[in-house]
Amino acid sequence: MKKLLITAAILTATSYTAHAADAIMHHEIMPVAFENNHSWTGGYLGFETGYQNARFKERFDGQYHMRHKSDGLLGGIYGGYNFEFWNNMILGVDANLTYNGARQNNAYSVFLNPNATRDINHESKLEWSAALRARLGFAMDRWMPYIAGGVATARIKNSIYDANYNYQSDRNNMTGWTAGAGVDYALASNTTLRLEYRHTDYGRKTFAIDNFNYKTKVKTDEFRIGVAYRF
């Protein structure tokens, strides 16, 4: 009887193990799919900062020619919309509004008559700028290098004051062109990092201050870094 019980226990354990092994061997593991492609189609809005080198070229009252450079920081907002095509090409529109810190001061003397001069301090300042550009890029998964170009405008302020602190100024909007290149990187599905170089020529404008005419030409080179939210 004892032997019979032992034999039955062994057969039961062996049968359970076989069924368990059979269940494991016949269980199919479902593959897990991971999405590696990043879509660039959609809108975005972000903040940017950077470094700016501005070059002012001025002609004072048809006689004096002044050239000076100014370095400064910039900061502002940008936004736009991208369209991604089947061949990974990106077409988009991009706009920005930027506060600029570039300014330059110069001191010089003006001959009022053969026996008298007037010492003047002159300041040129780039107050703010904006641009509307088209972008052409190429999608490389989370990387998107691009070139961009379009129209740019800026508010320029010219001011003078003399030894008696008589202060006068004039502001004008200047419009020109801008072109550059950069790269966007998708930190996440809804967040992008941007690094960009931009050259801008705002053209030439005449400023009238204290019965004098200042013809000012402004160009800038900028390096910008920004972070944007995609929607």
Describe the structure.
With 231 residues, the chain is mostly beta strands. It has one domain: Porin (Beta Barrel), CATH 2.40.160.20. It has one helix at 2-25, and strands at 42-60, 64-84, 89-100, 103-113, 116-138, 143-162, 167-188, 191-209, 212-230. Strands 1-2-3-5-6-7-8-9 form an eight-stranded antiparallel β-barrel. A hairpin with a 4-residue loop joins β5 and β6. The longest helix is centred in the first third of the chain and has 24 residues, at 2-25.
Task: Describe this structure in a few short sentences.
This protein is mainly beta and 231 residues long. It has one helix and nine strands.
Can you identify the CATH class? Mainly Beta
CATH third-tier fold name: Porin
- Strand-residue proportion: over 45%
Enumerate how many helices there are, as a single number: 1
Strand order of the largest sheet: 1-2-3-5-6-7-8-9
Mean pLDDT: 83
Whole-number count of domains: 1
Helix % is 10-25%
Reading the helices and strands in chain order gives HEEEEEEEEE
Q: Any guess at the CATH architecture?
A: Beta Barrel
Beta-strand segment tally = 9
Distance between the termini: 78 Å
User: Uncertain spans, ≥5 residues at pLDDT below 50?
Assistant: 2-6, 31-36
Q: Note the main sheet.
A: 8 strands, antiparallel, barrel
Please identify the structural class as seen in this structure. mainly beta
Q: What gyration radius follows from the Cα positions, in whole Å?
A: 34 Å
Shape: elongated
Organism: Paenochrobactrum glaciei
Protein name: Porin family protein
Family: Belongs to the Omp25/RopB family.
Main location: membrane
